[in-house]
Amino acid sequence: MSGTNQNWMNMSMAGPIFLTLLVFMVPGVYAADDLFGMGGTSGVGYYKGDYVSDTIPSSLEAGSSYPVVISFQNNGMVSWEWGVEKFGLLYQGLQSSITVDPVFSPIPAGMKVATQEEISFPFVLTPPDKPGEYELSFSMSTRKGEDKYTPFPNGFTKKIIVIPKEGVSSGNVGSIIIQSNPTGAMVSMGSEEKGKTPLTLPDLNPAQYEITVSHPDYGRKWAQVRVEPGSVSRVTVDLTTSEKPVVSTEQLLKFTPLGWLLDNISLIIISIIILFFGFQVIMMDTKRIPEHHPVRRYTRPLILLAPYADGKSRFQRGLSKDGRGESTGGGADASGGADGDRRREQGKTAGSESGTRKSVRDRKIRRDGESSERKPIETEEDESLPDVEDPDQEGREIEGIYGFPHALRDRYEPLGVAGDDTYARVYKVRKKESGDVRALKVGHSKQPGSEILQKESAVWRSLRHPNIVHLFKSEFLDDMSYLENEYLDGVSYKGMVHTSLNGLPKPIREQYAVSLVRDIAEGLKYAHDVGVRHYHLQSGDILLTPKLRAKVSGFARGRNELGFSVKDSDVRGATAAFITPEQRDEQKYGNPGRRTDIYQLGVIFYELLTGYLPYSPEAFQKSGHEGTFEDHADELILPSAFRKSLEKYDPIIVRMLSRKKSGRYYLMDEFIKDLDSVRKA
After folding, report:
1. What is the pLDDT of residues 541-589, one digit of tens each?
2. What's the CA gap between 130 and 122, in Å, rounded?
3. Is 423 inside a domain boundary?
4. Which candidate among 251, 256, 431, 647 keeps its CA 20 to 30 Å from the CA of 627?
5. For the chain, how far is it from start to end, CA to CA, in angstroms?
6. Which of 134, 136, 111, 132 is nearest to 123 (CA)?
7. Are the C-beta atoms of residues 606 and 652 closer than 8 Å to each other?
8. Where in this chain does the record put each Protein kinase domain (predicted)?
9. DSSP E strands: which ranges in 288-334?
10. By C-alpha distance, which of 243, 244, 240, 245 is closest to 672?
11. How far apart are alpha carbons 326 and 334 in whole angstroms?
12. What's the alpha-carbon Rg for the chain, to the nearest Å?
């Protein structure tokens, strides 16, 4: 009996043990999640994506666009790829007022994300105009058809705060906007940390605040900032120099009487029109305002409809010198009555018996041999000259001063041509509304901008950094596209003004070359930090200030990736030396990325130091190497081959201009650190 009980106990224990082994040994059939009721999609336990990181700011400024990147890790049991099953990151907060583009960011074709691997997805966030707290929600998902999605069970949710434009929501408060060089510095108000630069502190009560900006690599600086009602105080801090922070305060136009007037101009005009015509209706009723009332002395010239002696209203075409209407044919005023008799006694012409013909006074035209005597002329109607279309008039207007488009002249005053290429012409203009000088880039093509170009311009408009040219506005009309950029006067060098590095004589002094390249690197570092790549960096895209500081331009070209789903990059108009190996042969060298910009920056640095482009016949011949260029086409001639004093930059140039991406700097921070080490040495 005891043996039977023992066997029964062994069998009862074998069942759970077998089930447990089956769960862990056959993961493709069962998953622990599903056993506890946590499984989600079909293919139990196969699909699982966990949130890793994101670049979404905690506060967004109303009306601006923010390029962000969200990273997820594949913790499921199958690889993610765009094949039979279409994987991507889905935005699930459609009930929110925040616009997210695209709603579904797919995994690029040809990419495979295995288990435990991570992938980053780009999005552009555009907050609403109404400030407040909002919630964003994302999760990995599969797509079937055009708009049918199956999200994974675990997602990512983040609450953000939308602050008003420039941080001021009413005329009783102000704001502080802090920018630093380099970016990413910690901002503290008193002893409280507020975030990292660039940073906007919104809706502050009028008072004096102590702002401290610190960076682990550059120390700290502080400033006293006075906040005024309805104004914005801007703090600019350069941590790389010993200069004090620059603080400026400007009154926002929308909180001034002029701003209120401009904001309500349409309502004011409508109110004036309603009051005007309402008063005309009142004036038509002679019983309300007597004939000899003083108010008629001032309102009579405005009356459009006036009653005649017969009590009927007539349309008044004009007024006589004494304020009475001239005859318009018919009625007592034209054919009889006391008023008509007085006019005839004074020698004024009256209407004909039929009332269909009328007298008008001719306009005196002085010609040689003609009489200057005034004569009444009778005509059937008061005819005016017909409008005759001139087919060449529009062409002459467009081909006016500097070839500036006629459609933009009501907003901009052309001051000159700043540049021209195969894609567009750049004008120096003055805005008629504000008087600010801008650079207006007008495309030669008479077609509206592509969807990618419009997305890129929205991304560019959100980039705010001292070393990036600011894009104020972009418009893509049916027959014209243009960008309104910050205008830079350029630098005067050897009697000529150069607005970009393209025309600057090279080589230049070593200290200037290093300073310019560092400016460019800071701008690109900021762009890389927010998920934006340039991919077209050339000397012509680097604009100069009168103090020889560099700013990066040219982020919007219509086929630039910028984190969007565009595989190829349009480099057809680029100088050959700036085209990276991965842009020539993607299968051999891999996809473009941050290191593409680092390579192109290396080309600029090399040319500034040596006066030649890398991997060029001119550089090979000048170096004095033996043999032919064709046999050494892939050999990089070091800067020290031209001047011994440039030897310290050889290791940096080698890492920037490596043919293989793995040999280049991984981050712009690494390059800046090496460059600063050489400068200090």
Report:
1. 899 999 999 999 988 765 543 333 223 344 444 567 888 999 888 888 8
2. 25
3. no
4. 647
5. 92
6. 136
7. no
8. 412-678
9. 305-307, 313-315
10. 240
11. 9
12. 37
